[in-house]
Design a protein that fits this description.
With 156 residues, the chain is an alpha+beta fold. Helices cover 29% and strands 31% of the residues. Helix 2 packs antiparallel against helix 4.
Length: 156
């Protein structure tokens, strides 16, 4: 098992010192799914919800979340986000979310991509809950990451 980088030798939580790491281009992609009934999906795709265009608002919320990740996750470094892209698309039984985040820095943007995805899903839920409270957030995961000392990684 790998050593946990956010725990020091005495077992205390710590922010990792990245000052000695090389600055490299980094990208991470995360995905998730919001399962819902066909009627709620049709409402979401109509773009005429009581709170506005559901998908557009959720995508903007995801971009904002990527930029605020270090405010939410205690050991995340504040990063200069070069690009944050969030897409909400219809899928079989609900809405699929993809979040892609890029930076050039000393640490990766996996947490930013995952946070963008999760907040997008939560925003979709918030905007559609009047129609259906039983929706389910599913399968939030990292799909891929590039750059940095550990190199590239992709989910199987």
């Amino acid at each position: 098992m790998s050593k946990l980088t956010h725990i020091d030798e005495t077992g205390r939580a710590r922010m990792v010192d990245v000052s000695g790491k090389a600055v490299t281009a980094r990208e991470a992609v995360a995905e998730g799914f919001l399962r819902m009934s066909p009627a709620t999906l049709a409402l979401a795709l109509a773009g005429e919800g009581a709170k506005g265009d559901v998908r557009a608002v959720a995508e903007i919320a995801g971009v904002m979340a990527a930029k605020k990740t270090s405010d939410l996750i205690p050991m995340c470094h504040p990063l200069p986000i070069a690009k944050a892209e969030v897409r909400v698309e219809p899928g079989d039984g609900g809405l699929s979310v993809m979040a892609r985040v890029r930076t050039t820095g000393q640490t990766g943007v996996e947490m930013e991509a995952l946070t963008a995805c999760a907040v997008t899903l939560l925003t979709l839920y918030d905007m559609l809950k009047a129609a259906e409270k039983g929706m389910v957030l599913e399968a939030v995961r990292l799909v891929s990451k590039t750059g940095g000392k550990s190199g590239d990684w992709a989910a199987s």
